[in-house]
Each structure stands twice: as C-alpha cells, then as structure tokens.
Amino acid sequence: MSTLYEIDADESALAELLFDVGGDVSDEDVAAAVDAWMAELGDARAVKLDGYGKVIGELEARAAAKTAEADRLRNRAAAELNRVKQLKERLLAYMRERGHKAIGGNLFRFAVCANGGKTPLVLHVPTEELPEQFREALTTYRPKSDDIRAALESGADLSFATLGDRGYHLRVR
User: Each residue of 19-56: b (16+ CB within 10 Å) or e?
Assistant: First the structure.
C-alpha cells in the first residue's frame, strides 16, 4: 500500500499533467482515465487515513488501559506502604512502651533509633505573629496574563512580552 507521501506525489503529478495540457481533457478516453486515476487516488487516501485513525484509536485505547492499570497498581502500592507505616508505628510503640532498644525474632531484628538531623522546630504562633527579627518577608508575583494579552492585542508594544504562535494538535473523531 502506498504511503500518504506517495499518494500526495501521485496527486501532484496528476495536477501537473493537467496543468501541462491546459486542463484539456476533451478526449473521452483521456477524461475517463483522469477520472479513474483521481478516484483511485482519493480512495487510496481515504483508506490510508482510515488506517491512521484505526491505529491512533487502538494506541489511545491501549494507553488508557495501561494508565488505568498503572493507577490501580499505584493505589495498591500506596495502600501496602500505608500498611507498612502502620505496622512500623505499632511495633515502635510496643518497643518504646516496654523499654526495648532492640528485639528480634528468628529472621528479623528491630531496633529503636533516634532520628538524625536538626532538632525539630515547633512554632506556637502563625508566621505573621513572630517577632520581626525571626521572620522574613517574601513577596511573590504572578503576571496578569489577561491584561498583558489585551494590551498586546490592542496594539501596545511591550518590551517584556509578545504574543506567541498557536500550537497544533490532531483531533481524531
């Protein structure tokens, strides 16, 4: 089967041929041949485009199924990690309540360890209520996109912004 580019090249060749003869297809046999060639090219393009649509649809469906399966597995993994956390917390509480620094079974040993790093800081007031010397002012800005766009669309020349080109996507129906 021909590629889209080959079909396009054949259509261009037909158009060039018709241009070379000034569009004159007064001979019935020539007109019939041109009509048949055009119909064949149109059918070939339609079949090729339908093939693209089928493959795209199948790949989208497979990707959606794989995404759903990945989400399902991610949720199961999260549930299992949550269960691990609960079991560790329960075992830690048991060991601390009984004063065990380390205990073991036949296969595993468990030890209570202090967390490293800096000592945790607990603030008892909101940041705004901290004394000035213990807080820093942070100001964040974000662009007023609608105002900038409106100014540019009305013809304003802004050194800090321009309107970009629209992107493209393919819609499959």
Answer: eeeeeebeeeeeeeebeeeeeebeebbeebeeeeeeee
Question: Which residues, including other chains, have CB under 8 Å from residue 127's CB and lie 6 or more apart?
Answer: 135
pTM beyond 0.70, yes or no: no
pLDDT confidence band for 171 (50 / 70 / 90): low
Are 67 and 20 in contact, with CB atoms under 8 Å apart?
no
What pLDDT, on a 0 to 100 scale, did the predictor assign at position 162?
93
DSSP 103-133: EE-SS-EEE-----SSPP---SS-GGGS-GG
d(CA 100, CA 120): 24
Which tens digits make up the pLDDT trace of 150-162? 999 999 999 999 9
Strand, helix or coil at 102?
Answer: strand
Q: How far apart are CA 110 and CA 90, in angstroms?
A: 12
CA distance 163 to 42: 39
Looking at residue 170, what is its pLDDT?
A: 57
Q: Residue 138 burial by CB count (10 A; 0-12/13-18/19+): exposed, middle or buried?
A: exposed
**Cβ 15 vs Cβ 25: under 8 Å:** no
**Per-residue pLDDT for 172 more than 60?**
no
